[in-house]
Amino acid sequence: MKQITLTFLFVMAIGIVKAQDTTGNAGNKLTGMAAEGKIYVVLAVVFLIVAGLLLYLLRLDRKISKLERQNP
């Protein structure tokens, strides 16, 4: 489970780094959500949703493992 969690965190980190890549926008002004700084709010909300789902799955896994140990 630790390996899956670490892989997920690395993938999220790569996604965040790629999302802030501005090399394709070198001469252009930022538009839309990036111009207003709202892109960080969107990223924060997405991160919270994914983190919540991950925590829910970990908790559910622990409960299922506990039930499996009680009823062989």
Q: How large a portion of the residues is in β-strands, by DSSP E?
A: under 5%
Residue runs with pLDDT of under 50 for 5 or more positions: none
Quote the average pLDDT.
80
The total of helices stands at 3
- The rough form would be described as elongated
* Total beta strand runs: 0
Measured distance between first and last alpha carbons: 22 Å
> Which structural class is indicated by helix and strand composition?
mainly alpha
Rg over CA atoms, rounded to whole Å, is 19 Å
- The SSE string, one letter per element, is HHH
Largest sheet: none
Helix content: over 70%
Supply the key terms.
72 residues; 3 helices; mainly alpha; single chain
Description of the molecule:
The chain is mainly alpha-helical. The chain has a domain at 32-72. It is 75% helix and 0% strand. It has three helices and no strands. The chain is elongated, with a radius of gyration of 19 Å. The two termini are 22 Å apart. The mean pLDDT is 80.
